[in-house]
Amino acid sequence: MVLHRGSLIAALALLAGAPAVAAQSAYVRVSQVGYEAGNPPFRAYLMSTAAETGATFNVLNSGGTSVYSASAGASLGTWSNSAKLTYSVYALDFTVPAGDGYTISAAGPVPAISPAFPVADPVALYSGLLLNTLFFYETERDGPSYIPNALRAAPGHLNDEKAAVYQTPPLNSNDQITTTATSLTPTGAVINASGGWWDAGDYMKYVETVSYTVALQEIGIRDFPNQMGAHAPLNPPAPPNSISYAGTAAGAPASSNFEPEARFGIDFLTKMWDDTTKTLYYQVGNSQDWLNFRNLLSDYDIWRLPQADDNWQGCNSAAQYICHRPVFVAGPAGSPISPNLAGRLSAAFAECYQLNRTSQPSLANRCLKNAEDIFALADTSYADPASSVGSGTCGSGCLLTIMPFDGYPETVWDDDMELGATELYFALQSAGGNLPPGLPVTNPMTYLTQAAQFASNYITKIYNAGYSDTLNLYDVSGLAHFELFRALRAAGNPSGLAVTAAGIRKQLLQQAGDAVTQAGNDAWGFGDAWNGDTTSHGAGISVMASEAHYLTGNSSFDTYSRQWLANILGANPWGSSFIVGDGSTTFPDCIQHQVANLAGALNGTSGGVPVLWGAASEGPAYAATGGTLDGMNLCPANGVDTFRLFNGNDGPYGSSGKAVYRDFVQSYSTTEPAIDLTSTSFLMWSWRMAGKPELP
Q1: Spatial distance between the Cα atoms of 606 and 617, rounded to a whole number of angstroms
Q2: d(CA 269, CA 344)
Q3: CA separation (Å) from 152 to 141, 323, 425, 590, 665?
Q4: Are 390 and 406 in contact (CB under 8 A)?
Q5: What b/e readout covers 325-358, taking b as 16+ CB neighbours within 10 angstroms?
Q6: Nearest alpha-carbon partner for 43 in 639, 587, 526, 650
Q7: 312 within 8 A of 322, measured Cβ to Cβ
Q8: Residue 119 CB: number of other CB atoms within 10 A?
């Protein structure tokens, strides 16, 4: 289930091919964020075009003194760039004291030296990186409640406060709108659709991704109050050996308390759901071109700062849907809701109740009513997995995600409903009988029973049928199963449900074990494929491994959690962190993000101009994409692809499995960040710092 995000760029070209190599070469790959003190041995990797059997290495401290030396480990496998270029990969395992920065110097047939990296306790390593993550979400804010910072100088899309609602138009196989009589068909309704986060480097806003992001933020706030909640430290120190850090920027958050951000997300979702009429609005803005109204502009046709949209081209006829962005309705009032959206929306609102029940009871009660009403309207008649298409409108067999469906082709939904039902159980249970009037359901066991059934359905229809995925936007079972286990345990392991606490624990461990099996077949020990949503999946499996360690006490799961974190932060074939600002030397400079491209630094050194700290990029993918728009700052300016020598696949070369990474503003497939891609990272940082959730 690989994310295929719509490009901001109209023209798209695939960039392929591998250059010839003039001489043998070797590289040392490390976690550029660093290694956790107290958890040795630490692992780096030596990759070389020459056989390095018998090679030795030294770990040098910040003063240049060798503090550890050893022979390179046995070959872990190969990484193939082409039929003619293959790298052998070797383990470099070492132990050094905490509190310093280090480099690794490898001596052998081809010598190599690593980037600098620190060794410190998890709080020192990750507190600032969690702050970076919050900075990303704050910068993604739309509407009047934007937060001024060095990247954001003005609010955007104020016209969304009075947005006209439209029916979803038909699309052809090229994702063009095919309406004839009128460009879009209005319903006559006007709503306040302001606020919310932009989905990615574009300015689209989707309930699909906002609800997922809010649900994960609220779980983080609830479970990790000392990292993401009210007790998050003020002004944490900069991560050691870090280039960039949000805490150094004017207007950057002073702590990693996500409570205001989660509230911002909930406020937007309450605008997208009208509980009085039971109407769901699922999208703000249009990204698709018209077949018959070719003069009309869409979001992907222009490159600009968000504040320009409210009066783009004087709001002439071509810019009418740029200045006055359309809102699309999911269906008639009271109609059934696609179960993926129903599940994650009800989870987000139920968690809103859990967090605000005491401090803001009016908000909490409204959230709980929304959660129950949405859950009750879930259309569970879909097949699971549901239908999918390559492009165009999917029809009645497909889940509702965004327009076009192939922008987010989600097919699995029992996991979303499992999460929604579980969070509703927690909400009602936390109330202790002191519930607001007018709720459809007041017995928490009703939802626990349903959650168990949806989990059983997932195991039978999805996992056993080979359709499962790791924790990410398309499959939340890696979180839902953990939540359900805790709920069943809190309820005293009631009998007669579709799954037991022991059964769902076993299922979660089995899915984490699948990532371990995958890691055993990869030279880099990565627990997922390298060619799609790599950053999000890497953080997701790190979270799942932390959950498994919590459930079992098995230290090997903790090792894998750290290893998979390292894989997306430099310990990979490309030697790059895939999260902006998180790393000692190399992270994405040229992300496909309009604000970062127009208002930020383009070389990663900041120099007083910030980068979009904390933004998780797509990472390695099936291919790199290309094409420009007027106003885009070319990055890198010379167009040189410094990473193409490292594109490839594990084991013998196979072109169909080749993973590509290019740090290139035109390459949305590898460098576009997004709110959903970044969501697993804040949970990853919190798990690594806290070790366990606050609640039982």
Answers
A1: 18
A2: 11
A3: 9, 19, 40, 18, 19
A4: yes
A5: bbbbbbbeeeeebbbbbbbbbbbbbbbbbbbbbe
A6: 526
A7: yes
A8: 27
Which two tokens mark 563? 């290893």
Q: What is the pLDDT of residues 376-416, one digit of tens each?
A: 999 999 999 999 875 556 777 899 999 999 999 999 999 99
Strand order, beta sheet including 649-650 = 26-29, 42-48, 86-94, 75-80, 649-650
Rounded Cα distance between 458 and 384, Å, is 8
pLDDT of residue 179: 97
Cα gap 321→472, rounded to integer Å = 31
Q: Which amino acid is at 650?
A: D
**Bridge partners, 106 (sequence order):** 57, 112
Q: Is the dihedral of CA 390, 394, 398, 400 positive or negative?
A: positive
Quote the pLDDT of residue 18.
Answer: 36
Residue 2: its pLDDT value, please?
Answer: 32
Q: Are 681 and 579 in contact (CB under 8 A)?
A: yes
Question: pLDDT tens digit string along 7-34?
Answer: 333 333 333 333 334 478 999 999 999 9
Question: Which SS3 state, helix, strand or coil, does residue 427 take?
Answer: helix
Contacts for 524-527 with beta carbons within 8 Å, 24 or more apart?
524/45, 524/76, 524/79, 524/89, 524/567, 524/571, 524/572, 524/573, 524/650, 525/43, 525/76, 525/563, 525/564, 525/567, 526/564, 526/567, 526/572, 527/470, 527/560, 527/564
* DSSP label of 475: B
The DSSP code for 8 is S
CB 324 within 8 A of CB 164: yes
Question: What does the H/E/C string look like for 377-408?
Answer: CECCCCCCCCCCCCCCCCCCCCCCCCCCHHHC
Residues 476 and 483: their CA atoms lie apart, in Å, by 11
Tokens of 282: 């699922």
Q: Per the omega criterion (within 30 degrees of 0), is the bond before 404 cis? A: yes
Q: Is the peptide bond before 306 cis (omega within 30 degrees of 0)?
A: no
CA dihedral defined by 158, 163, 166, 171, rounded to 10 degrees? Answer: 0
The DSSP secondary-structure symbol of 627 reads: -
Q: What radius of gyration do the chain's Cα atoms show?
A: 24
Cα(56)–Cα(358) distance, integer angstroms? 60
Q: Give the span between the Cα atoms of 305 and 307, in whole angstroms.
A: 6
Amino acid at 558: D
Judge whether 39 and 562 are in contact, CB under 8 Å.
yes
- E strands in 35-121: 35-36, 42-48, 56-60, 66-71, 75-80, 86-94, 100-107, 112-113, 117-120
Q: CB atoms < 10 A from the CB of 203, how many?
A: 26
